[in-house]
Amino acid sequence: MAIIDHYNALDEQQKTKFRDDILKITGWSYTTFYYKMKNDNFSKLEKEAIEKYITKTSKK
User: Whole-model pTM?
Assistant: First the structure.
């Protein structure tokens, strides 16, 4: 599943938590987060970190 697809499947509260957690993991600003999400513009390491986070949180 693409990161944006996962994000779009979340409700508003979950999207906020997802965004805030990703900002902590990556050190991005809000603007960078939304730019990268909109354009699917992740480096390999960013994508791996986000996918790891998704896998970890999906198991709960």
Answer: 0.89
